[in-house]
Amino acid sequence: MSLYLILFWTFFKIGLFGFGGGYAIASLIQDEVVFNHQWLTVAQFTDIMAISQVTPGPIAINCATYVGYSATGSIWGSAIATFASCLGPFLLVCLVVLGMQKIKNNPYVEYAFQGIRPAVIGLIASAALLLANGENFIDLYSYLIFGAVAIASLAKVNPIFLLVLSGIAGYFLY
Amino acid sequence: MLLDLFIAFFKIGAFTFGGGYAMISVIEQEVVTKKKWLSETDFVDMLAMVQSLPGPISINSSVYVGYKLKGVLGAIVAAIGTALPSFVIILLLAIVFTDVQDHPTIEKVFKGIRPAVVALIVAPLVRLSQKSGITYKNVIIPIAAALLVWQLDVSPIYIIIVAATGGLLYNWNKNKKK
User: Fold this and answer.
1) Which structural domain range is residue A94 located in?
2) How many structural domains are present in chain A?
3) How confident is the model at residue B19 (pLDDT cuts 50, 70, 90)?
C-alpha cells in the first residue's frame, strides 16, 4: 500500500475513534504513529503535543498535519492526513443532525456512553503513562518540572504560560 | 452566506488555543451572540451532541452549524474554515521544525518542555474523573483501560468498542431484571 493510503487510513481511524477530546485521543495517535508505523519517536510526539498546545486548533488535526508532512516530506501528505482525520467526525455529525430527535431519545446511546466515559479517563491516563519514559524524563530536573507544572496546572495556571516557562527552564538547565 | 460561514469558523479555528473547553465560549460568541445562527438552547443541545461524538469540538460544531444552515456544502465550507488556520500554521512549523529540531538550543528548550507536557495531561484527570461519574463500583474500568493500553499495547480502538458494548450489555441486563 502506498504511504499516502496508509496515512489516510491511519488518520481516518484516529478521527473515527477520537472520543473524549485531545488528551484521550493522544494515546490512540501515539499507538498508531509511534508504535505501529514508527513515523515519530516518543520524544518527537511529545514535542508535537507541546506545539499543539501553544498553537490554535485541535491536537488530533495538528498531529495529522505534522505527521503527514514529516512522514512524506510533502505538503500533500499533510493535506491528506488532515482531511482523513476530519472525515469520520464530519460524516457522523451530518448523520446525527439528520436523525437527531431519534438518537436523543434512544436509551441505548446513553447505555453505551456509561461504558465509554470511564474508559476515556483510562485512555488519558495511558497517554500520560506512555509518555512518562526515559526519552522525556532524562534526569532529576525532569521530575521537578513535572511536579511544578502538575501543581500549577491544578491551580488553573494557563498551560501555554507553563510550557513557555518550562522551555526557558530547559534552556538554562541543560 | 457561505462566505459568512467560512469567515466565522476561520476565526474560531484561528483563535482557539489549547483546544477543547477553552474554545466553547469563542464558538458561542460567533454562532449565538453575533450571527444568531443558533438559539441558546440549540447551542446547548449541539454541545451535548458534539461532545459525545468522536472528533474535535470545533470541527464537529462547524459541521453541525454549516449543515443546519446550508446542508452538506455549508458543512464542508465551515469545516474547511475551522481547519485551515491550524493547518497552515502547523505545516509551516513542520517544514521549519524538521530542520531545526537537532539544533542545540531547540533541543534544550524541548528537554524542559517534555515533562511539562506529561504533567498537563495528568493534572485534569482529577477533575475529569469526577465529571465522568467514576465511583468505587466502576473505577476498575479506567484502571483496566489504562493498564491494557500502557502495558499490553492494546489499541485504544478496542478499548472504546469493548467499553461501549459493556455499557450496553450491563444496562440492558439491569433494566431487564426490573
Assistant:
1) 3-136
2) 1
3) low
CA distance A140 to A128: 18
With beta carbons under 8 A apart, name residues in chain B contacting A78.
Answer: 87, 90-91, 94
List CB contacts of A126: < 8 A, sequence separation 6 or more.
A27, B145, B146, B147, B148, B149, B150, B156
In the predicted model, what is the mean pLDDT of residues B79-99?
A: 90
Q: In whole angstroms, what is the distance from residue B61 CA to residue B51 CA?
A: 9
Would A86 be classed as within a structural domain?
yes
For B162, the grid coordinates are: 469493548
Cβ distance of A117 and B133 shorter than 8 Å? yes
Q: How far apart are CA A140 and CA B52, in angstroms?
A: 40
Tell me what the mean pLDDT of segment B114-143 comes to: 83
Mutate to test the interface with B, among A98, A104, A117 (most CBs of B within 10 A): A117
Tell me which residue of B88, B92, B52, B45 sits closest to B68, measured CA to CA: B45
Are A143 and A137 in contact, with CB atoms under 8 Å apart? yes
* Selected residue with higher pLDDT from B133 and B89: B89
Q: How far apart are the C-alpha atoms of A153 and B64, rounded to whole Å?
A: 32
CB atoms within 10 A of CB A106: 12
Residue B144 has a CB neighbour count (10 Å cut-off) of: 17
pLDDT of A54 over the 80 cut: no
How many Cβ atoms from other residues are within 10 Å of residue B156's Cβ? 30
C-alpha cell recorded at residue A157: 495556571
**What is the per-residue pLDDT across B21-79, written as a single tens digit (0 to 9) for each?**
567 777 888 888 888 999 888 888 887 778 778 888 889 999 999 999 999 999 999 99
pLDDT, mean of residues A147-165: 86
Cell representation of residue A88: 469520520
Is any Cβ of chain B less than 8 angstroms from the Cβ of A41? no
Tell me: pLDDT of B13 over 70.
Answer: yes
Mutate to test the interface with A, among B76, B160, B161 (most CBs of A within 10 A): B160
**In contact, B112 and A168? CB cutoff 8 Å:** yes
Residue A25 domain-assigned (yes or no): yes
**Complex ipTM value:** 0.82
